[in-house]
Write a structure and sequence with these properties.
Elements: H1 5-19, H2 23-45, H3 49-61, H4 65-74, H5 78-86, H6 107-120, E1 125-134, H7 135-148, E2 152-157, H8 166-178, E3 182-188, H9 199-205, E4 210-213, E5 233-236, E6 240-244, H10 250-253, E7 259-260, E8 262-267, H11 271-286, E9 303-310, H12 318-329, E10 333-337, H13 345-356, E11 360-366, H14 372-388, E12 391-395, E13 399-400, E14 404-407, E15 411-415, H15 421-426, E16 429-435, H16 437-453, E17 455-456, H17 459-463, H18 467-477
Parallel strand pairs: 2-3, 3-4, 7-13, 10-11, 11-12
Antiparallel strand pairs: 1-8, 1-9, 2-5, 5-6, 6-8, 9-16, 10-14, 12-17, 14-15, 15-16
Length: about 475
């Protein structure tokens, strides 16, 4: 005769009563086992000693929950998954011969070029032309490029707003699809949610192939909260492209603008490196393999350039090490413009060494930031640099979202990356390094204009901060690894 539910309920209750005295021991064994397991995994897989100490402390001080948080947020699954998907084919060097690679004109920058080449496994390309564009002009240039495209449009962005900027661009992409252009759009999974309803639905109604990078509304299926695709570039007809720090948002094009940014039109062989980066991201997200063959002329200008594709996968730490190398190579001047300046101790120390050897260091950040916590942490970090002789300038509104760096009036780095933990370790970024006196001179002139409008914030300014503000800034800086 089958046993009824009452029987099984009684049996389970009896078993629980029998085991009740032993539950503390069972819980202790589980907690210790999880803590030991996580500690061993952290020690073997984390290169940053601070991260090792932080996670180890968390899993021992917060039993079970600390291990769960580490599993959700601390384990980098992206590197393994990316390698499984691409098989290493997209990141291959395509027969690059080091003997054919050009060299910068300045002797001390030749070492920097070779170092970045070994980091990225990509050649420094010659014959490029870079046109610098402010955000409204860049937006219109991208619209014109979409309207004139005949073969393909590959667009990647972090934020694609469903607003006065995003809707016309989405409609232009839909029109391109209708006339037979191969269009692919990649929007970050978190960035797609900045506008509700998401622009993704408008793109799909327009028959535009669009994917969201690491997207899920279910928390248990979204273990990559910090690993965002922050890249912003577009390649048209595999001949020319655009890249920089500009998202697709109405704040850039409204009058007066709420946000300013620096974007660039890219022409020349380095466009092939933009293509390869987009193809790798698209394949990772959709499984579709795209043609990465550059179709433009071999020589369009005098700029030597290379793409720096950085992220928490196989490209881990490439951008950070490039910045360290560039700072170390500087002999006369370093200029940095960024909305978020919260570098780690190594970058801070390298900038201090540059100051000690007599290099002029100028840093421009917004006077009013859209992320107050980051701004407070920035001021705490900058306090030490200013005390060593760095020049800090606070730019007035509108909010300057540009990300650019120049070294010795000859080397330029521009793109999507900021000077914070997210851009340096947690996000997927794309920047261009460029060698050329004319291009660097153009950017330096733009920076001269911004500095002329900015407020110099010196050591006296820091000393005059109210004590509670100094404490606030110091407490905010304690969160540097997570900002």
């Amino acid at each position: 005769m089958p046993l009824d539910a009452t029987y099984w309920t009684a049996e389970i209750d009896a078993l629980l009563i029998m085991l009740e005295p032993y539950w503390p021991y069972v819980a202790a064994v589980i907690s210790i086992g999880l803590a030991v397991t996580v500690t061993v995994h952290v020690a073997q897989n984390k290169r940053d000693a601070r991260a090792v100490a932080a996670w180890t402390g968390l899993v021992w001080l917060v039993p079970v929950l600390g291990a769960v948080l580490y599993y959700m947020l601390g384990v980098n699954r992206i590197r393994r998954r990316a390698r499984q998907l691409t098989g290493g084919l997209i990141d291959s060097n395509d027969g690059w011969r080091i003997a054919a690679e050009p060299e910068p004109d300045l002797e001390h920058l030749k070492v920097l070029s070779r170092l970045v080449g070994r980091l990225t496994h990509l050649p420094l390309t010659d014959g490029n032309h870079i046109t610098l564009l402010d955000a409204p002009i860049a937006y219109q240039a991208m619209m014109d490029a979409i309207d004139s495209a005949t073969e393909s449009i590959y667009l990647a962005t972090y934020i694609f707003g469903n607003d006065a900027a995003g809707k016309p661009l989405a409609d232009a992409l839909s029109a391109a699809v209708a006339r037979g252009v191969k269009v692919r759009v990649l929007v970050d999974g978190a960035g797609a949610l900045y506008s509700l309803p998401s622009i993704v639905w408008r793109l799909r109604r327009g028959k535009v192939p669009v994917e969201r990078f690491l997207y899920s509304l279910a928390p248990w299926r979204m273990p990559y909260l910090n690993l965002r695709n922050h890249r912003k570039f577009m390649v048209v007809d595999r001949r020319y492209g655009f890249t920089g720090g500009m998202n697709i948002r109405a704040g850039y094009i409204q009058q007066p603008p709420k946000i300013t940014d620096l974007h660039a039109r890219i022409e020349g062989p380095v466009v092939g490196q933009l293509l390869r980066t987009f193809a790798a991201d698209w394949y990772f997200t959709s499984g579709e393999l795209l043609d990465t063959c550059y179709c433009g002329p071999a020589w369009l200008g005098a700029v030597q350039s290379r793409g720096i594709s950085a992220g928490p996968d196989a490209d881990f730490d490439k951008r950070r090490m490039t910045l360290l190398a560039a700072i170390g190579s500087a002999e006369s001047r370093i200029r940095i413009v960024t909305p978020y300046f919260v570098p780690d101790l190594t970058l801070l120390a390298t900038l201090q060494l540059a100051l000690l050897k007599g290099v002029q260091v100028e840093i421009v950040i917004p006077r009013k930031n859209n992320l107050r916590l980051v701004h407070w942490a920035s001021l705490h970090a900058l306090r030490w640099l200013v005390s060593e002789g760095a020049e800090l300038y606070l730019s007035p509104p509108p909010f300057d979202h540009s990300k650019v760096m120049t070294v010795d009036r000859h080397w330029v780095m521009l793109g999507s990356g900021n000077w914070d933990a997210r851009s340096l370790r947690l996000n997927f970024e794309f920047d261009l390094e460029c060698y050329g006196e004319a291009l660097a001179g153009q950017i330096d002139e733009m920076l001269d204009e911004r500095i002329a409008l900015s407020q110099r914030f010196d050591q006296v300014g820091f000393e005059q901060l109210a004590p509670w503000r100094r404490v606030r800034n110091a407490l905010a800086h304690m969160l540097e690894p997570y900002l």
